Amino acid sequence: MAFLGTLTSFLLLFTHIIHNARAASIHPLCGSNITIDNVQPVAKSVTDLTALFHGLELPEGACIFNPALVQVSGPLYCLFGRIYEASEPGKRCAPGRMDRPPFLDGWRGKSTNILAILWLRQDPNRRRLQTKLMGHTYINASNHEDGRLFKDSRGRIYVYLALPIGVYPKRAVINTVNRVFIQCNRSSSHCAVSLGYPRILSFLGSDNAMDKNWVPWNGSEYMSFSHYGTFGPHSVFNWGSYDEPVLHIDFDSVAEDSLFPNFNKHYGHLLQLSGGSPVVLEPGGKSYLGVGHFKAHPGCFHPEAMPAWVDKSRFGHMVGQLGTNCAHLQQSSNETTRSEVLRVAFNFLHEGKEGIHYPLDYGFFFYRFNAAAPHNITHISHGVIPYTWRNASDHQGIVFPTGLERLGSDTYIIAYGDEDQASKLMTISARRVEALLWPLPKMEQSLDTYTVCAIGCEGEEGGRCSYE
Ligand SMILES: *[C@@H]1O[C@H](CO)[C@@H](O)[C@H](O)[C@H]1NC(C)=O
Ligand SMILES: *[C@@H]1O[C@H](CO)[C@@H](O)[C@H](O)[C@H]1NC(C)=O
Ligand SMILES: *[C@@H]1O[C@H](CO)[C@@H](O)[C@H](O)[C@H]1NC(C)=O
Ligand SMILES: *[C@@H]1O[C@H](CO)[C@@H](O)[C@H](O)[C@H]1NC(C)=O
Ligand SMILES: *[C@@H]1O[C@H](CO)[C@@H](O)[C@H](O)[C@H]1NC(C)=O
Ligand SMILES: *[C@@H]1O[C@H](CO)[C@@H](O)[C@H](O)[C@H]1NC(C)=O
Ligand SMILES: *[C@@H]1O[C@H](CO)[C@@H](O)[C@H](O)[C@H]1NC(C)=O
Predict the structure, then answer these.
(1) Residue 215 CB: number of other CB atoms within 10 A?
(2) Which of 144, 172, 210, 397 could be 361's S-S partner, Cβ–Cβ 3.0 to 4.6 Å?
(3) Which segment of the chain is annotated as a signal peptide (predicted)?
(4) Residue 249: which region, alpha, beta or left (left: phi > 0; alpha: psi -120 to 50)?
């Protein structure tokens, strides 16, 4: 066993080196040292769902992304996705292409949504999920943006939405929950799915009109508030009931810790943590697990995107290779640059030309908090992005986690939007997730080595996930 393990790590290291020599501009694969017990951090599979929606009444060239996901029962799952039809035909999404992100169309097209029922099963012969579409509703009368699906304490399915109103700069969101109604007919294998009326989640304690990405706790009426920029302190709402949510002037609990303020002091806007998927109760019932999203200055990883204030002579050796952490920008920054860089990052060019990389890099991190009040966050992982095999000039850096579910008892499904163009499901074993979770004090001791790397697929050549 030990020998096999060593051989596997050697092979992984070997493919890693070859791979890096061939295409140095791909985000590097994660090494086992981002886990606490030297487990290779790999996913089981990645499955692209987007083709399931082709041929429906969706607009030609629709991008279908940021899928929320909740299990209905058995192999049936409910999905809420976002749809975008670019204003110009040449900028619309197309099967097999990943170079048509809506931001390149300036989001001037039409945004709608889809609710769908899927049948999901691990394909016994292949490293991916078998999928079938059991029914859907195209929600085209309004734009609901990103949803998060979850069940309340009575097992009823809801979608949490942050409905946009107005146009920038007079723009705000209204946070709501809507029931989701599902009726399946066994003999025809078809499900009807519809959205109920919205219930407003009122929180008067924030002066940010754009507060969204709140985190529903599956199986309850609780949600976590996403503090923009800092993530912590972990601040919690108990809405009481989603039929009549309680008006909130303040949080029901707040748990302070030192990691999040220190992370923020260290990186400022260079690297920010925020809410992503809903959270789910872990076995034993003592803690919840969630997948958050981070956003980072692209200069953390793409050397060509380093801002002008970086002393490049000190970091010249990095040029030509994608990095895995942000220590060099952190060390070169002062308080002003640390807090301004997200705006500066909007000038990201690839090799001096207008590239297709979004001006920020997005990714996932796992975290855990206590089920008991005051719900302190106890663990957090390094940053991971799904392995794409795409290089800096043809990836856009936008992967956005919108769902966390189970497949059987030992596997998690992470539902995410890929580059605002595709809807994907990554599966990963609970054991590998466990290994990624660091106790907060331990992570706090090594803020400088906070890593962002690509997580490949178990047993696949070079870690490449064969979802295509
Ligand atoms: C990156 O992608 C571009 C466009 O597909 C291609 O021309 C280039 O050769 C790729 N570079 C590497 C290092 O793989
Ligand atoms: C993992 O190892 C690499 C290479 O030795 C090192 O640069 C990096 O900081 C390590 N990462 C962590 C999280 O310890
Ligand atoms: C919405 O889609 C339906 C078909 O599902 C179509 O009849 C209707 O015209 C569409 N409405 C808008 C506003 O696009
Ligand atoms: C979500 O909550 C429901 C209770 O409403 C529970 O039955 C289900 O197992 C939970 N899902 C997960 C992934 O924990
Ligand atoms: C269920 O499907 C069958 C077969 O298509 C159909 O005959 C039946 O009317 C459906 N039942 C309901 C309640 O819609
Ligand atoms: C949990 O949060 C409470 C409230 O902020 C705080 O007093 C306590 O020190 C925290 N416990 C740990 C272990 O961080
Ligand atoms: C921070 O760094 C920037 C870029 O080097 C510089 O222009 C600015 O004056 C610095 N600000 C402070 C307060 O030192």
Answers:
(1) 27
(2) 397
(3) 1-23
(4) alpha
Q: What is the 3-state secondary structure (H, E, C) of 21-57?
A: HHCCCCCCECCHHHCCCCCCCCECEEEECHHHHCCCC
> What percent of the chain clears pLDDT 70, i.e. is strictly above it?
92
Rounded to 5 degrees, φ, ψ at 6 are -65, -40
Residue located nearest, by CA, to atom 8 of ligand 4? 219
Which pLDDT score, from 0 to 100, does residue 4 have? 36
Instruction: Indicate the burial class of 400 (C-beta count within 10 angstroms; 0-12, 13-18, 19 or more).
Output: buried
pTM metric for this prediction: 0.92
DSSP string, 80-138: EEEEEE-SSGGGS--TT-----GGGGTT-SEEEEEEEEEEEEE-TTSSSEEEEEEEEEE
DSSP annotation of 387 reads: -
Torsion angle, CA of 296/406/225/229, rounded to 10 degrees?
A: -10
Please list, residue by residue across 333-366, b when 16 or more beta carbons sit within 10 angstroms of its beta carbon and e when fewer do: beeebbeebbebbeebebeeeebbbbbbbbbbbb
**Nearest Cα residue to atom 14 of ligand 2:** 33
Q: Which residues contact 87 (CB under 8 A, 6 or more apart)?
A: 105, 106, 108, 109, 110
CA distances from 262 to 336, 443, 447 (A): 17, 11, 9
CA separation for the pair 365, 6 (Å, rounded): 27
Q: Which residue has the CA at smallest separation from atom 3 of ligand 6?
A: 255
Q: Ligand 4 mean position to 357 CA, how many Å?
A: 37
Q: Considering only CA atoms, which of 16, 6, 8, 5 is closest in space to residue 456? A: 16
* Residue closest to 294 by CA, chosen among 328, 260, 318: 260
CA of 378 to the centre of ligand 6 (A): 10
How far does the centroid of ligand 4 lie from the alpha carbon of residue 409, in Å? 12
pLDDT in tens, 134-164: 999 999 998 999 999 999 999 999 999 999 9
Q: Which residues pair with 222 in a beta bridge?
A: 238
Cα–Cα distance, 25 to 421 (Å, whole number): 22
CB 336 near ligand 7, within 6 Å: yes
- Collapsing DSSP to helix, strand or coil, 172 comes out as strand
% of the chain surpassing 90 pLDDT: 71
Determine phi and psi for 273, rounding to 5 degrees. -105, 145
Give bridge partners of residue 125 from the DSSP assignment. Answer: none
99-131 pLDDT, tens digit each? 899 988 889 999 999 999 999 999 888 888 999
With b meaning 16 or more CB within 10 Å and e meaning fewer, what string describes 222-251?
bbbbbbbeebbbbbbbbbeebeebeebeeb
pLDDT of res. 317: 62
